[in-house]
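Let us begin with a simple case.
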Amino acid sequence: MAGITYSVLDLATVVAGKTPEDTFRHSLELAQYAEELGYKRYWLAEHHNMISVASSATSVLIGYIAGGTKTIRVGSGGIMLPNHSPLVIAEQFGTLASLYPGRIDLGLGRAPGTDQVTAMAIRGSRFNAAHDFPEDVEQLKTYFSDDNASSQVRAIPGEGLDIPIWILGSSTDSARLAAEKGLPYAFASHFAPAQFLTAINIYRQNFKPSATLQKPYVISCVNVVAADTDAEANRLVTSLLQFFMGVVTGRRRLLQPPVDSMDDIWNAQEAEAVGQMLGCSFIGSPETIREDLQSFMEQTKVDELMVTSHIYDHQARLHSYEIFADVIKKVSVPVLN
């Protein structure tokens, strides 16, 4: 039996009545508290043209969080690599790893992190760059390697630095790529749970050991809304439900305050669509969370849980992470052979 590594995914969510400036200050406070509570990583995700998500300049935010903490690993969950040239990302993360040695992670995704119109504005003539994702990952690894020292194009800083690369995904395609390259794999089960079990099975069954990783390593990102009582958690989670409803309908808003009932906010079809996104979510009191987590871990045997919490009130959000950190120490699972 083994304990479970636990981490944070922060979407830098802007709540109604607040600004991105408030969001960044709260993110740093959460990262500092997470460090105290034993969370291993604090990752930020690249998104664009979303009113409620302020993490578009992901590398800048990673530097801000790393500069305000001491031991927690800070990274991307993820950088959407087709939006950038591999050289620029190598330089940015080489700079971060030089400023904060041994603390920077580089998670990579292939989606644009936005709508198609905005993706065109970002990528321009490279609009179909997602097709080059496997080659771009390999190019990035080359820029980080000592072997690139004789190349005409070098990443300075970046070359020769130990910067762990992770493959992120929400489908089986990413699982196959991570397995083929022998890289750790983080699945976006917090919003795309449907293919989660299939994807991690494909990854584990096809994994090829590499110089950086000898056996499969899986992170599952999950939604957590924990409170002292089930009733309070079920009220707090209505902010997340409204957030997901905006994703489903395309009518995005700043993160809304919780409500006593969703009945007057959504219709049956919207409720069903949101429900399908909640398959890897843990909502409730400490005891409820513990029971649900134990079952989840016995079924999936993932190596690490990464928690994201769309909670309107900052203090309630901090308390949710505190509850989770306490509860997860009471959950254990058999280790995969």
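The second case is a distinct protein. As before, the sequence precedes its structure tokens.
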Amino acid sequence: MHFPENVRIVEVGVRDGLQNEPTPVDTATKLALIRKLSESGLRHIEAASFVSPKWVPQMADHREIMQALAIEGEKSVTTYSALTPNLKGLEAALECGVREVAVFGAASESFSQRNINCSIAESLARFAPVMERALEAGVRVRGYVSCVMGCPYEGEISPLQVAAVARELSDMGCYEVSLGDTIGTGTPLKAKRLLEAVTREVSVERLAAHFHDTYGQALTNLYTVMEEGIAVIDSSVAGLGGCPYAKGASGNVATEDVIYLLEGLGIDSGVNLAQLARTGDWISRQLGRANGSKVGQALMAKY
């Protein structure tokens, strides 16, 4: 077994998690959550999404969030990124001082149509001017690929299709490509075969794992891909999240559970687990929902 010595956590709970909450979360609470996450040692937090409030009302305060973080970011060691699916969103993000953005595609034609109303090829073509403008502005771009181990509409997805989309995003200029098991149907064998295909097109050093835990397999799958060289993991505090276009999908794997796994393997993440668990408990109470992290629940029961 050859695990990485260090793993970088990309905390996606603020964006990928909160965007699915049915009750509006005010800006002050979001900023408080972001600050608590940063104080726990997380150094990459996806904080907002520059999309139309009509489609994602929970992200309507993206300007206020990113402008506040831009001021703090000058003294912070934490990277605060934002999702910018089109040129209009990118320009708005640049006005707010964002230094890193993300674009997202899918490995499933049906999911792409349901999510962003266009084909995979059309979605990638739309990203071209976004990539060009971002790189021109000196802003790094991260790419997401959804449905890498299963689609709610098509079922099984070919690893070769995932590899093709990942290659396109990488060739466009994405410094990193995050592989998303959007509906959480992946298993260790699927994850291994997925990486075998994708790493023929994009080096493992430029890949990240973004696994949802719908079927309780996320940690097992992460263990498998870390053995294969993955050293970047997307996760969500308290397991916040889901997917509005994938009925029944649960949130991303809980950050607390990932950190506990990493500590058990002797892998450094730079995150204070106890402090993170308190943050997960806090935001769960703020939202009036159960804490989705088993580790968080266990630790808070001891405090």
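The longest strand covers residues 100-106. The chain has one domain: 8-302.
Keep these points in mind for the review questions at the end of the chapter.
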